[in-house]
Specification:
The protein has helices at residues 2-18, 142-173, and strands spanning 33-39, 49-57, 66-67, 75-78, 82-86, 93-100, 105-107, 111-112, 117-124, 129-133. By secondary structure, it is α+β, with helices and mostly antiparallel strands. It has a domain at 33-133: Immunoglobulin-like. The N and C termini lie far apart (92 Å).
């Protein structure tokens, strides 16, 4: 009996050693995002973005502004022409501060979260930034947009089929 138990333990240890070892990452689903595109048409020369910060505010005047903390996937990043933010959840009000290649740091107006996947146009002025939300369906995750599109298509097809049946029955009565 002892030898069967020993064989079983050894066999289970060998099986565990043969199993692939992988790092498992857990995620809670899609995160809200913000995308910032810069419009530099008011400047004489194009500037490159060096770095930036997104400030989160609960007060409309941003008197309680605090930078978005980098935790897990939550962060604010910039490349030379745009910036992006991902968070577990955004505060209702924001402002950004961007350093450009002319060694000047410009601060934006206070703006509100425009939706789940928000897109903004940032107009670069000589001394400051003007952030405006782009219109779109960014407040809906892509899955909901697909579902809404399918429902609308089904309703449209139903209306067309109903109209055809109605016209056929009407023509047979005459």
């Amino acid at each position: 009996m002892l030898s069967k138990l020993t064989k079983l333990v050894v066999l289970s240890l060998i099986c565990q050693l043969l199993m692939p070892v992988q790092i498992v990452l857990a995620d809670t689903g899609p995160k809200p995002t913000m995308d910032f595109a810069f419009d530099q048409t008011l400047l004489e020369s194009d500037l490159q973005v060096i770095s930036g910060s997104l400030y989160e505010c609960d007060q409309p005047d941003c008197s309680d502004a605090a930078p978005l903390q980098e935790v897990g996937p939550q962060r604010f990043t910039c490349d030379t022409t745009s910036c992006q933010a991902t968070a577990y959840g955004f505060a209702p009000y924001h402002k950004i501060e961007i350093e450009f290649s002319d060694e000047q740091t410009r601060q934006s107006n206070i703006f509100q979260t425009a939706g789940f996947n928000s897109k903004y146009t940032v107009t670069v002025h000589p001394d400051d930034l003007l952030v405006k939300a782009k219109f779109g369906l960014g407040f809906l995750p892509p899955v909901f947009i697909l579902i809404i599109t399918c429902v609308c298509a089904l309703v449209g097809i139903g209306l067309v089929v109903g109209l055809i049946v109605f016209l056929i029955r009407r023509s047979k009565k005459n």
